[in-house]
Amino acid sequence: MGPLTFRALRLLADGRFHSGAQVARTLQRSRAALSETLKGAESLGIEVFSVPGKGYRLAEPVEFLDAHAIVSRLGPAAARVRLTILDAVDSTSTHLTALAQAGAPSGACVVAEWQKAGRGRRGRDWQAGLGASLTFSLLWRFEQGPGHLAGLSLAVAVAAARALERAGVRGVGVKWPNDLVHDWKKLGGILVETSGEMLGPTAAVVGVGINYRLGEALARRIDQPATDVASLGGPLPSRNALLADLVAELVAALERFGREGFAAFRDEWKARHAYAGRTVTVLAGGEPPHEAQVIDVAEDGALVVEAGGRRSRLTSAEISLRPA
Asked: Which of 73, 119, 121, 175 is labelled catalytic?
């Protein structure tokens, strides 16, 4: 998707009619070129109306991200974050991982208006549309080795839940090991990828995706029950304000995790755990699916389950959970 399409959509972002001639002049393109570039909006999940005599308008307004608005709301975290906003990228985590390997500093943060190939856990695709989601990745460098970062995705989930509640979204739960849920529906996801020496240091790329305002077409492409911030009642928070709150909470959580590990987040995570005490279906490695009861989460972030009177510890690399 070319930059001209995003430039045109920014001019139409308020959802009002705009003269095609005026938009074309602003872009320094012909009317034909404008018409052609707006055809690309459909692949972004954006519907554009064209009415003779009135011009173009979007079916729904889109709030584009604004670096100044975000940074001004970060508070103390602004000193730790280097923010980059991209129109389109295959995956913010893939992009940031390459930057990390090239020496990007801790606190580098890549945000995308639209991901072409967003990644979730276990190779799943992350579905997103322009203005429909918040997708970003944050690089954090720890002195410890990867083995000391167990439970990091759970701590990130606590931070994201706090930010959502600060923005007025109540009842946010967590699903082990990396989902945010509301009323059993997926609200967001987390992907943490680490690299480094056994004894440290470690670079962690923390990817976060939040369903903001999905729309029916995008919701149908998601392969599980899902919800979004716009559906949960109350005034819809600004995308810029919500992103700033997410990044600020995440920075504070990563700093604390570096000092105290998952133990500092365990009680709050358990209080939010949507599957606590539930019977679930466990998919572990190459084993057949089996049912177990969720008992606890351990101090290292492992999930403790019980099946047939026998308790076992499950790690994020081994399981997927579904309601039984």
From this structure: 121
Query: How far is Cα 314 from Cα 309, in angstroms, rounded to an integer?
Result: 16
DSSP notation for 19-72: -HHHHHHHHT--HHHHHHHHGGGGGGT--EEEETTTEEEESS------HHHHHH
C-beta separation of 20 from 54 below 8 A: no
Q: Yes or no: say if 94 and 119 are a contact pair by the CB < 8 Å rule.
A: yes
Active-site residue, 186 included: yes
For the chain, how big is the Rg over CA atoms in Å?
21
Is 7 catalytic? The answer is no
Active site residue 322: yes
Hey, CA dihedral for 268, 263, 198, 282, is it positive or negative? Answer: negative
Catalytic-labelled residue, pool 186, 213, 239, 266: 186
**CA–CA dist 157, 152 (Å, integer):** 9
Torsion of CA 218, 219, 220, 225, to 10 degrees: 150
Read off the pLDDT of residues 137-191 as tens digits, 9 standing for 90 and up. 999 999 999 989 999 999 999 999 999 999 999 999 999 988 999 998 999 999 9
